[in-house]
Design brief:
Order of helices and strands: HHHEEHEHEHEH
CATH superfamily of the largest domain: OmpA-like domain
Helix content: 40-55%
Number of strands: 5
Number of domains: 2
Shape: elongated
Largest sheet: 5 strands, mixed
Oligomer: single chain
Strand content: 5-15%
Structural class: alpha+beta
Number of helices: 7
CATH architecture of the largest domain: 2-Layer Sandwich
CATH class of the largest domain: Alpha Beta
Length: 249
């Protein structure tokens, strides 16, 4: 009697079709994944990869383009390039106003320090901002508005000088004048900028942060000044003395 063939061949064919179907499904998922990666923000890709390997020196060649790694592309990141351009824009505004001899700018690591000498803003013992000072302040306010997200703080520092080399100034007049001058500059900027008001700070130091002796009229004039300290959002904050030391190196 002839032996009947096993019907397992039919089952084998069905199993083959199942395997083929699974393969097609996997390929479809693979191509969907490739498409999604092709539109992935490079900075976010770096964040994902570094979360798995935080010690990695290089993430991948897919994200090696420095233009794609700008800090402003990272959620919550700081636009470092915009803050660096702040100094150049302020310097240009000073030159266009022909105030280069009256205004000094210094660019440090994470901050810009500006010194307005003697009577750029104020006359004598007055705290009323002069027209010349108003014009340059208005330009500064507009420039800061363009990089407000990268600014941590704008500190306005008011200073006087000791009129008599042998005797301190009257404390009430000295302190109030320097504080009022700084406050008026801050109020002027606040009315003309988009920088958040809580980032604008005024401080009056009176005669007690001199940058020159009180012995000659020329030196005393150097001490009469208004300073702006603009710090970057992610910068490490230093004391005023440390900023002065860095600028005088």
């Amino acid at each position: 009697m002839k032996k009947r063939r096993s019907s397992g061949g039919g089952g084998g064919g069905a199993n083959w079709m199942d395997t083929y179907g699974d393969l097609v499904t996997l390929l479809l998922c693979f191509f969907v994944l490739l498409y999604s990666i092709s539109t992935l923000d490079q900075a976010k890709w770096i964040m994902v990869v570094k979360s798995f390997n935080p010690d990695a020196d290089k993430v991948s060649q897919i994200a090696d383009d420095p233009d794609l790694l700008a800090e402003d592309d990272v959620p919550g990141g700081i636009d470092a390039e915009a803050f660096d351009e702040l100094f150049e824009s302020l310097q240009q505004a000073v030159e266009e106003a022909n105030l280069a001899s009256e205004v000094e700018l210094f660019k440090g690591d994470g901050y810009t320090f500006i010194t307005f000498h003697d009577n750029v803003f104020f006359d004598g013992d007055s705290s009323i901002i002069k027209e010349e000072g108003s014009q340059i302040l208005e330009q500064f306010a507009k420039i800061m508005s363009g990089v407000d997200s990268s600014i941590k703080e704008v500190r306005v520092l008011g200073h006087t000088t000791q009129a008599d080399p042998d005797r301190l100034n009257n404390p009430m007049n000295d302190r109030v004048l320097s504080a009022e001058r700084a406050a008026r500059v801050v109020a002027f900027i606040q009315e003309r900028t988009t920088v958040s008001p809580d980032k604008l700070v005024s401080e009056g130091y009176g005669q007690f942060r001199p940058i020159a002796p009180f012995d000659t009229p020329e030196n005393r004039a150097k001490n009469r000044r208004v300073e702006l300290l603009i710090t970057k959002s992610d910068a490490v904050e230093h004391s005023l003395e440390e900023y002065y030391q860095e600028m005088n190196r």
